Amino acid sequence: MIVRLMRDPLLHFLLLGALVFAGYQWIKPANSRLDANTIVVDRNALLTFIQYRSKAFEPQLAERRLDALTPGDREALVRDFIKEEALYREARALGMIDNDYIVRRRSVQKLEFIAQGLAANAVEVEPRALADFFESRHQDYYEAPSLTFTHVYFNADKRGREAARTAAVALLAELNREGVAFADAPRYGDRYLYHRNYVERTPDFIASHFGAGFGQRLDTLSPGPRWQGPIASDQGEHLVLIREHQAGRLPALEEIRPRVEQDYRQWQQQTQQALAIQKIVDQYHVENQL
Prior knowledge:
Layout: H1 2-6, H2 9-32, H3 43-54, H4 59-68, H5 71-93, H6 101-122, H7 127-136, E1 146-155, H8 156-159, H9 161-177, E2 197-201, H10 203-210, H11 212-219, E3 228-232, E4 236-246, H12 257-281
Antiparallel strand pairs: 1-2, 1-4, 3-4
């Protein structure tokens, strides 16, 4: 029970708030003696500034970044901090912050940001939980079929559709007789608008370049060392040399574990952040007067 309580993102969130408040109360007497126009630049202020700028609530990482700064970069960081603090105080003095929705949203975003950072630190990847996560989203990892091929193009606009097809038929025998290789395809035919070689491209990608009919015909052909065609596209006629045809598949967890772990961590972070924020919201009584 105690271990689960210590892992609760809401507890971390509330403890952080308490520490911030206690720290403020501890330094308040000293700061109250300072002039209102005094901006205190210390290590804690810069660490907080770095974390908000980098959008990563990780104190240890912020410390490493601060310590790694060159003297010039540190001076630039201090200048940016002073400028932001001065502008903030001036806006507050002019009453620009009161009832300002943008400031309200920024304050909410800061709390969400802190909750997100705490949730990220709390995520642990357990094998059974990861397997269940993968199983429930198995279709999300479907790998679409793909083709690797090259082609020789005959421009129908330039030659005319029938002439383009006749030229393709005439060249087909020559390509197979001479055993023209994959890499030599650019030596033949007309210049194509898109690519000459297509490596592990999906049917949707191929259809976007050649048209749906070309892709459907290509699916009926088998990989091998011989040139095939002609195949009509939206632009003309093509001879093709197919090197590989990979069927669509659902990979096993072990094949893509790093990717699934990353997705699982992100899902857990979002879930824990939402729970922590909802617990805060649940502390308030809402009077709906609509």
